[in-house]
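Fill in residues.
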C-alpha cells in the first residue's frame, strides 16, 4: 500500500506530495519549495522517515509546481519526469518568474517523459497515469486504485477547477478531461489537488458548480 503525505509551500499555497511504499522508497510530486526553510523542512521530513527518493514526477510544469525540483535533483541525484506536452510550459519558467517579479535559479530539465496509459511502478505498487489537459497541455493525473486516491494537480479542486486562461489552457478540454478520466473513477476516490483541501469524486459530481448537469 502506498502512503501519501503532503506539504503546502510558496506564495501560491501549492501542495507538494510524497508517495512512499513499505520499503521507504518514494516519489516526489510537484515539489514547490521556494524559500530555503521550505526546502530544509522537506528534506528533514525525508531524512527523519529514512525515505529513499526515486524520482520526481510532476502533474505539470507551472512555476509554482517546479520551484523545488532542482534542489532535489542536486541533493539526491534523482531524475525529473513530466509529460512531453509540458516541455513548452517548462521552457517558459524563467519568463514566467520574471513576469511575477520572482527570482528563480536554474530551470530544471526533464530527464524522462511520463505517458498516458503507462503505469508507474514503485516497488510492488503501481499508479495509473491519465493525460488530463485543459489547465496546461500536458497535465497528468496519478491514480492509485488500492489506496483510492488520485493526485490531480491543478485539474480539479474542492468545489472548483483549474484556471484555463494561461498559455495552453482550454476550458472545454479541461471539462472533457475531468468527465472522461476523473469522473469515471469510483465516487469514494479521494482527490488530492495542487492547491486547497482534498475532496472526493462523488462530492465533486454532486456539488462542483463547474461540473453539475
Amino acid at each position: 500500500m502506498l502512503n501519501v503525505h503532503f506539504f503546502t509551500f510558496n506564495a501560491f499555497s501549492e501542495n507538494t506530495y510524497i508517495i512512499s511504499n513499505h520499503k521507504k522508497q518514494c516519489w516526489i510530486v510537484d515539489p514547490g519549495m521556494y524559500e530555503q526553510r521550505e526546502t530544509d523542512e522537506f528534506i528533514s521530513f525525508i531524512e527523519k522517515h529514512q525515505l529513499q527518493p526515486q524520482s520526481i514526477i510532476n502533474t505539470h510544469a507551472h512555476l509554482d509546481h517546479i520551484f523545488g525540483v532542482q534542489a532535489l535533483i542536486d541533493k539526491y541525484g534523482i531524475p525529473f519526469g513530466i509529460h512531453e506536452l509540458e516541455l513548452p510550459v517548462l521552457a517558459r519558467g524563467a519568463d514566467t518568474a520574471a513576469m511575477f517579479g520572482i527570482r528563480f535559479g536554474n530551470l530544471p530539465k526533464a530527464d524522462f517523459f511520463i505517458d498516458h496509459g503507462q503505469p508507474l511502478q514503485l516497488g510492488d505498487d503501481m499508479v495509473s497515469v491519465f493525460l488530463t489537459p485543459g489547465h496546461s497541455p500536458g497535465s497528468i493525473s496519478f491514480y492509485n486504485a488500492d489506496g483510492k486516491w488520485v493526485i490531480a494537480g491543478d485539474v480539479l479542486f474542492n468545489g472548483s477547477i483549474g484556471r484555463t486562461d494561461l498559455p495552453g489552457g482550454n476550458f472545454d478540454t479541461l471539462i472533457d478531461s475531468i468527465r472522461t478520466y476523473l469522473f469515471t473513477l469510483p465516487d469514494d476516490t479521494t482527490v488530492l489537488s495542487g492547491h486547497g483541501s482534498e475532496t472526493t469524486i462523488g462530492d465533486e459530481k454532486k456539488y462542483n458548480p463547474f461540473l453539475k448537469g
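The first strand starts at residue 3 and ends at 9.
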